[in-house]
Amino acid sequence: MIKILVDAMGGDKAPAAIVQGAVQALEKDRDLHLIFTGRQSEIQAELNKLKYDKARVEIADCQDVIDMNDNPVEAVRRSDSSMMKAYAMLRKQDDICAFVTAGSTGAAIAGGQILLGRIRGVKRAALCPAIPNSRGHVTLLCDCGANTECKPIMLCQFALLASAYAKVGFGIANPKVGLLNNGTEEHKGDALRQETYKYLSEMQGVDFIGNVEGRDIMIGECDVVVADGYTGNIALKSIEGCGKLMLGVMKKEFSATLRSKIGYLFLKKAIKNMRGQLDFEKAGGALLLGLKKVVVKSHGSSKPQTIAAAIANAANIYRGGLVPAVEKSLESVDLNSIIMESAE
Amino acid sequence: MIKILVDAMGGDKAPAAIVQGAVQALEKDRDLHLIFTGRQSEIQAELNKLKYDKARVEIADCQDVIDMNDNPVEAVRRSDSSMMKAYAMLRKQDDICAFVTAGSTGAAIAGGQILLGRIRGVKRAALCPAIPNSRGHVTLLCDCGANTECKPIMLCQFALLASAYAKVGFGIANPKVGLLNNGTEEHKGDALRQETYKYLSEMQGVDFIGNVEGRDIMIGECDVVVADGYTGNIALKSIEGCGKLMLGVMKKEFSATLRSKIGYLFLKKAIKNMRGQLDFEKAGGALLLGLKKVVVKSHGSSKPQTIAAAIANAANIYRGGLVPAVEKSLESVDLNSIIMESAE
Fold it and tell me: Cα separation of A202 and A197, whole Å?
């Protein structure tokens, strides 16, 4: 049995979309057992609309809900909130494997680091989404927003953490790692990039291929792209904006004339396939890497199928043994001996 | 008459694509007069394949060509190169209005700052492409790679420079300016972003709307997005990669089955329209803002129509009076009084 906590109140469409998605996940995975945190009456009302296996669902009642606009660090103190209650349970109960939330990213990061805690040796947790790439696979972009300002040792750890995730979550035996930079040459970038380049080149346990550019996230040659959280966030959201614009223009053009409407009928399936390949919400949310248990942050605008994918992803990552893999990879590499000057 | 220099040897497809594109531009604009810099025999051989108005074309012969891999600062000394010869002529000859190159970005920036020089008061030149957005217009992203490390005063100047470009080049009367950040809240970002936010809020002559995210470049509410060159480059190339992936997936899916091939026949025009709206090479290259004359950097893989668009854009910007507009906007704002602590 895999016990997973689900924040029923986080996200724009909570609790309805969360509960629906969770029930979808339950149907697909007979091993799954879910515990919702949130307002019991609201959650139960949503559950009552659905068919589900009652033996595999619990509700941990709490009244408070953290908003996207709440200050993340202050939010951590709100122990009766659906998110912080989940973190407290995750920490205390050994039999709970993972936590999925579509709530505030900032609060999820703060709560994870403060209430759940980091794996021994991890400097900072990082947000790591899986982005579809032209090889029909995914690129892990780490960090994507948890750490606005970074030091080289943090970026080196992100490389280790995301490599472990690539192995465990996506079965990539030897993940290739690139450093996000404004050009591929070794000397490119600011002091942070230049220093990190040097350390990554010398590091054991990371298959570093050098600098990569923004375009390589989606079309490139590596499985992991390492970035500070500020830049990773800009890259991720630039991609999101481009995707939205293109799909929007496509929709407009494909319904502009009778001729194009007819064409659309023929291409409907191809367009659905295309959207499927490009929909990175289906990829299962962003992992909060470096924490003591598996935590998946799903998009704030998550639909039921997004939540279902995030829960399935969390179960998959737990089964793959992410946390032990991260522990092992940290033990095998003595980062501090490489990086003396940038140690915090 | 508008006299424009064209680097005939810069770019992957030079000199053929450059010469062809230049002749296309000549045909469309009877006022244009072009001077190619580069190997006379090779340029003439390309010209001989085309019909063109001989009275409006000159060649300034030189033998050296700067490569994408050459060190930019060292490249500046190579005065017999097609790029540096053009810069020397641009500086000396008052009747030459602008310069278009598809050669090395780094060398174009270095040559521009060293050989041509910046407008009085400009701290650093910036690379500023026009990116299509969901309003059917363009967003100017400034800087996109000229300055890897920036201070707040530089970002504030980029806001002024790009606002002048938006007015002159795209007829936007009151360009709205956003600061590229990892969230829209005022406190977001690193020290550079937080400080710049404060200054931009107080600045005259800039219609600052606050922080914008990566997605806002293509779908957002502002005309100018201000970034340091490192981040701007990551954003631009992330968008480029996403666009390439989507068009690639579309092509694959639309030719996968007989059904989809039939649909494609009906949608051909719509897809062409779509590509047209999303093709930011057609938008006329990236402007090197802050230099004493108009300099347009076209993509290294420029096709003839890309070069034609870049030349047309250069003529348009010159006619609009970009350099005087920048001078005027710099005079009207006393940046140093706002930004004491970040002055270089």
Answer: 9
Number of CB atoms found within 10 A of residue A341's CB: 8
Contacts of A270 in chain B (CB under 8 A): 253-254, 256-257, 260, 263
Work out the number of other CB atoms within 10 angstroms of the CB of residue B195.
Answer: 19
In tens, the pLDDT along B259-288 reads: 888 888 888 887 787 777 666 666 678 999
Which pLDDT does position A279 carry in this prediction? 67
Of B189, B240, B266, the CB nearest to A148: B189
CA A271 to chain B, closest CA, distance in angstroms equals 7
Task: Inspect the interface and report whether the beta carbons of B242 and A238 lie closer than 8 Å.
Answer: yes
DSSP letter assigned to residue A6: E
Question: Which residue ranges in chain A fall short of pLDDT 50?
Answer: 341-344
pLDDT in tens, A35-80: 999 999 999 999 999 999 999 999 999 999 999 889 999 999 999 9
Lowest-confidence pick of A70-84, A251-265, B76-90, B111-125:
A251-265
Give A177's Cβ-side CA count (13 Å radius): 31
Locate all alpha helices (DSSP H) within A49-94, ordered by sequence: 72-75, 82-92
Q: Which residue of B has its CA nearest to A264?
A: B263
CA distance A28 to B120: 67
Q: Half-sphere exposure (CA, 13 Å, Cβ side) for A254?
A: 16
Identify the closest residue of chain B to A141 by CA–CA distance. B238
3-state secondary structure of A215: coil
What's the pTM?
Answer: 0.89
Q: How far apart are CA B177 and CA B165, in angstroms?
A: 12
Residues composing chain A: 344
Q: What's phi and psi for B211, nearest 5 deg?
A: -70, 145
Contact A32, A26 (CB under 8 A): yes
CA closest to A144 among chain B residues: B182
Question: Are the Cβ atoms of B218 and A242 closer than 8 angstroms?
Answer: yes
**DSSP secondary-structure letter at B170?**
H
**Dist. CA B211–CA B282, nearest whole Å:** 28
Q: What is the mean pLDDT of chain B?
A: 91
Identify the CA nearest to A135 among candidates A219, A236, A235.
A219
Residues of B in contact with A239 (CB under 8 A): 214, 238-239, 241-242
CB contact under 8 A, A241 and B214: yes
In the prediction, which pLDDT does A344 show? Answer: 43
The pair of three-digit structure tokens given for residue B103, joined into one six-digit string: 């050669």
Residue with tokens 């349970």: A89
- Between CA B213 and CA A56 the distance in angstroms is 40
Residues 6+ apart with CB under 8 A from A75: A66, A81, A83, A84, A104, A106, A107, A110, A111
- d(CA A177, CA A181) in angstroms, rounded, equals 13
Strands A138-142 and A126-132: antiparallel
User: pLDDT per residue over A254-279, tens digit each?
Assistant: 888 888 888 888 888 877 877 776 66
CB B144 within 8 A of CB B299: no
CB contact under 8 A, A219 and B182: no
